[in-house]
Fold this protein.
Amino acid sequence: MKLIGKGILKGLFVTLNHFFMTYIDDIKTRLQRVPRKDVTKIRSSAEATGLFTIQYPEIQIAPSEEYRMIPFLVYELTETNERKYRCTACGICSKVCPTQCIWITRKRDEVTGKPVPQSEEFYIDIDKCMNCGSCAEFCPFDAIKMDHDFEISTYERGETRIYSKEKLGKPLDYYAKIRPVNFKLEEDERKLKAGVN
Amino acid sequence: MTDQISIPSEYTAVFDEFKEKIQLETRVNFFGIVVSADDLFKVLQFVRNQMQYDFLSSITTVDDFPEDKIEIIYHVYKSIGGPEIEIKVFTLREEPHVPSCVQLYPGAEFQEREIFDLYGVTFDNHPDLRRILMWEGFEGHPLRKDWKEPQFEEMVKPFKSRWPEGKGVLTESVNPYNDNVQYPEQFDPRGFEPETDLAIYNELQKVTSDKPNSINTDQLIVNFGPQHPSTHGVFRMVAALDGETIVDLKPVMGYLHRNHEKIGERNTYLQIMPYTDRLDYLSSMNNNFGYAITVERMMGIQPAIRAEYIRIMMAEFTRISSHIWSIGFLLNDLGAYFTPALYTMEERELILDIFEAVSGSRMMGNYFRFGGVVRDVNEIILKKAHDLVYNRIARKTDELDRYLTDNEIVRSRCEGIGVLTSDQAIAYSVTGPLLRSSGVPYDIRRADPYGIYDQLDFDVCTRQHGDVYDRYLIRLDEIRQSLRILKQVLKQIPDGPVMNGKVQYNTKVPAGEMYGRVEGPRGELGFYVVSDGKPNPKRYHVRAPSFINLTSLAAMCKGSKIADAVTILGSVDIVLGEVDR
């Protein structure tokens, strides 16, 4: 003979457990999880209990280093405060792009008319971009990288969503900040190459 | 000469029976036998009844434009495992037609409709030959090589206008009607009445209930969806009801169709990889896996050893997250609004954290490459995976068991509902948990091992009743088996590179064909790729498990109440990204 309703009660006990866990978690948060930044760390660890949600945008989960969102062009500042882009307009990123959302115009020498390894214009239609990261993966000059900034919504659509070279450019420091491990690896490789030569 | 020296052993019986009527495929790197359209039905009948090749995995088509022919390709397997039989039929591009095999393999119904829709091939004696993915007023057959989309730019990517003289253009400005639709001449969308909708209603009105009617009930037709939360997306069921009982049901799909296969044929081999993520977006890693092994087999390369382990790790994590989510959503469909679904989400979140750390994206991984994976998995991620596998997910599975398995409401709503017998399941080409819950131990990880699954220790779970409750239980079983696999993978994972050589963006694939399949969380995910040696595939076909599993939906729903149709659909666990492609 089986008691009818026993299964439901057993299930409800699980719900009750979850219910109380959120409060225990809450008390802990108030008392122990100061500074509150830690909440995200605890929430993404395998031991997380209680409430799984966080209060966005007050608290934000930092994306992991490999997180990718919309490419940007890396530049270094010269002494005269001009942007020196790493991009050589080789066109590999626009060839591998699955959605073909990258347009590049190669710069030509004003006197001779021969192409020089710099881009004149660089466009990315970020509405078409699917954040696959292929451009950054196959760029031989580490010139195009994937960003971490995902808050890119705007009030209008159309032409403003085609980012120009100006808007795509971000300094090298920024890259070093969002991807420290990758940056260090690349710099080490660069130094090694320079040393060999 | 050619047909004497090397007839593969599985074809000898067919050759003994039909002799001169069939030929072996002669092209290099192409397989199977070629039969004429007249003999096709007889050959399939022989293969099915005499040789016990009872499982039709996929029907697909290749357009040989500019040659005047269309190939139709059948991949048939035994449901007890073993090699495939591949049968090809050639037909002319003008008014192509072949006999339908729905009588032999009911699972062919939707696939033949898809070919009719996208290639314009007529299947004689098909019970219900209508468009399935495109809309009713659509002109032309989009997968034909000479069909061009409205914003057509070039046959293949990369487009020449992007480099070295590229100027950013808004896509909307190059479309002829400023949106993405191409109408036939003298067509007014405002006065359009879809004929096939009327056809569905007429067809359903013919069906009458055969149950003895003590109470006087009306027969009526109910449209369920496309906008309905329990259809898991934009999916529509047109049901003929007798009172509350379903007499017949027709699924209508294609609302999310984007012609994935045409996009694939425009792309280079590598560019397809991120698009496969978007098929079944709950198991992107597994989609990558299927596509990667198919192209790797064509190229004749082996992935690096460490990459093999990482791949299996990702595939099994995907399976867990997908199953755990489908259990949660099934409960949603039963009316337990969102509490179980959100409990199951917790573990899924943690798994997605791992995916984000390794691939850079939580859902759209784009993580696999031909010959390995994009980047290595570091110690921190392995530690977290270890914690999840040994502690958290195992605990969660037990908790779900406690929470739901004995629940009287769950049991009374699920037991004996939507029953699919094992014979029916095989006939309808149903795969995955659905097939195994009907008592057929068919799992591609065992039946046709890929990767290093043959070195790993796990069981193929089966359940015997084939109802909704068993489908729920089998998903719990499979999570436990996945954990077993993951434990072995985490223990054995060797050091080393994750890529053989450097990743090339211009993949060279020799001419040939390949049908590769993996066991996805929803069933057999197959990729059929034909290469002609160019940078883009000549044909790229996806055998989507949820799409073909839906063929059995009407059979499962007949005789049950309309409220149970929601539960049955939930237990099939469709993902519309994959159904509509």
Chain B has 21 helices and 17 strands.
